[in-house]
Amino acid sequence: MTQAEALKEYLLRLADSDMILGQRLCELCGKAPALEEEMALMNVALDLVGQARNWYEYAAELIDDGRDADKLAFRRDAHDYRNLLLTEQPNEDYAVTMGRQFFFDVYHYFTLKSLTESSDERIAGIAAKALKEATYHLRRSSEWVKRLGDGTEESHRRMQEAIDILWRFTGELITPDDTDRVMAEAGIGPDPDQLAKDWRGMVNEVLTQATLTPGAEDAWMYMGGKHGEHTEHLGFILAEMQFLQRAYPDATTW
Amino acid sequence: MYAQLVETGAKRLKTKEEMSPEEREFHEKVDAETKIEPKNWMPEGYRKTLVRQISQHAHSEVVGMLPEGNWVTRAPTLKRKLQLMAKIQDEAGHGLYLYSAMETLGADRDEEIEKLHQGKAKYSSIFNYPTLNWADMGAVGWLVDGAAIVNQVVLQRTSYGPYSRAMIRICKEESFHQRQGYQILLDMMREGTEEQKAMVQDAINRLWWPALMMFGPHDDESPNSQQSMAWKIKRKSNDELRQMFIDQTVPQLEFLGCTAPDPDLKWNEETGHYDFGEINWQEFYDVLKGNGPCNRERIKTRKNAIDEGAWVREAAVAYAEKQKQRAQAA
Ligand SMILES: [Fe+2]
Ligand SMILES: [Fe+2]
Ligand SMILES: [Fe+2]
């Protein structure tokens, strides 16, 4: 794999994970457990979709086949999507929503932090702005994991269940493949070992404070999103998210 | 504004002689355009009317997120998706801000929300209509936020300080929503396909009359208006506001190249206003009583969100309590 190919692939991964998690949060509109959460969820979603747009725009320039950011977001099918499987998992209850957010935010925070020092200036610029947002996201989701883990008996039970349900999707966040390694070697992407270490460290710290038990480090992990092999959920997410673009392919302006 | 029928509890206006000294002083303040603040004495009817009106308004902001949530997962471009998300976030903020203004009157947010979920509190009837195509996101911004602004600009001068200040802040954002909504329609009309243009006209056909209903019943059918006007909670009558809205909206409609579903709509040279047809008041009262297309779904969604989130809020309270105890023990 050439560096140029890996870079395009890597940008789509960043964009798609932001986009799909943002979409999942959009589904919660009007359904949050409190009005303050309504605002906060939409705020996080807005940040994520905004970041996705920045990554898509850069990806579109490099791919350079006439597709723009919108085409990349709304005209690719599931097998072309490169998001982490974690981000496409359903909202379920608020423990799962927050657990998913927390696992992602830890990964997102350390990834962006490293990307601010990327040898690719465009990436470093996008990451610098995104890192501010992700820092807030992580603070928020960590707080919720602690509140739910160390709140009531019921919230503890639900939060532990959420950790158990989601754990098998976390391996993908910190298991590098060729693309990740090429990016790291080029000084563009984060060092995979460091990312894994940072992710484990912070997850363990927060879960301990939350009186929760993480999954086993050698647990079986469900992976494939980064290569376009998804869970059954993504097809439905895209069917909804891409409805207008598919139903009205001739429309060029909206 | 999203308060269409606010009960004041007054059958007729009191004369100066019938008023207590503090009530007279209150009226003098209102007449002199001095804002009433939370710590000031106020008639119980005034307080209750305000709680009803502000809570109706707050509920409307929150329920109003649902018809937009219906399309936020299906927006056509990244730009439109981001705009809609930002709008929804604003509306949640308006709800929070208004509930806070309401709480300065001694009312409790949870209690008022409970009334909404029991079907005892009102919210704007407009949000009981479905959003059936993407152009509805444009039409809602243009017509619904537009109608809200006409009312709220006037309410910036309402006599209760916290409500007036809330309106000033909220109006800025609503104007932004209105322009954005109109732009959605304009872009589709100018550069869209025939199918897209048909969506725009369809959205206007469905939302036109419900938007006019947002201003409430005719003045002579609105027994509470007189008291609200005397208290300067309300500053202009329903019919006046509706006419203002029509007059500003029809030229925009024509600029779009669309039509209104009203054969009687036409410019009246003599009055300098647009004439328009009669609202279907039966439909208005039906929707207000709960028999609109989406009343059940809207309330059910809101009630489920709060009911199913109870364990989350309980956990947050329990955790905060534990943290407090730990801090004290340390
Ligand atoms: Fe409003
Ligand atoms: Fe609003
Ligand atoms: Fe608005």
UniProtKB/TrEMBL annotation, chain A:
<dbReference type="InterPro" id="IPR009078">
    <property type="entry name" value="Ferritin-like_SF"/>
</dbReference>
<dbReference type="GO" id="GO:0010124">
    <property type="term" value="P:phenylacetate catabolic process"/>
</dbReference>
<dbReference type="InterPro" id="IPR011882">
    <property type="entry name" value="PaaC"/>
</dbReference>
<dbReference type="InterPro" id="IPR007814">
    <property type="entry name" value="PaaA_PaaC"/>
</dbReference>
<protein>
    <submittedName>
        <fullName>Phenylacetate-CoA oxygenase subunit PaaI</fullName>
    </submittedName>
</protein>
<dbReference type="GO" id="GO:0005829">
    <property type="term" value="C:cytosol"/>
</dbReference>
<dbReference type="InterPro" id="IPR052703">
    <property type="entry name" value="Aromatic_CoA_ox/epox"/>
</dbReference>
<dbReference type="InterPro" id="IPR012347">
    <property type="entry name" value="Ferritin-like"/>
</dbReference>
<dbReference type="Pfam" id="PF05138">
    <property type="entry name" value="PaaA_PaaC"/>
</dbReference>
TrEMBL record, chain B:
<dbReference type="InterPro" id="IPR009078">
    <property type="entry name" value="Ferritin-like_SF"/>
</dbReference>
<dbReference type="InterPro" id="IPR007814">
    <property type="entry name" value="PaaA_PaaC"/>
</dbReference>
<dbReference type="GO" id="GO:0010124">
    <property type="term" value="P:phenylacetate catabolic process"/>
</dbReference>
<dbReference type="InterPro" id="IPR011881">
    <property type="entry name" value="PaaA"/>
</dbReference>
<dbReference type="InterPro" id="IPR012347">
    <property type="entry name" value="Ferritin-like"/>
</dbReference>
<dbReference type="InterPro" id="IPR052703">
    <property type="entry name" value="Aromatic_CoA_ox/epox"/>
</dbReference>
<dbReference type="Pfam" id="PF05138">
    <property type="entry name" value="PaaA_PaaC"/>
</dbReference>
<protein>
    <submittedName>
        <fullName>1,2-phenylacetyl-CoA epoxidase subunit A</fullName>
    </submittedName>
</protein>
<dbReference type="GO" id="GO:0097266">
    <property type="term" value="F:phenylacetyl-CoA 1,2-epoxidase activity"/>
</dbReference>
<dbReference type="GO" id="GO:0005829">
    <property type="term" value="C:cytosol"/>
</dbReference>
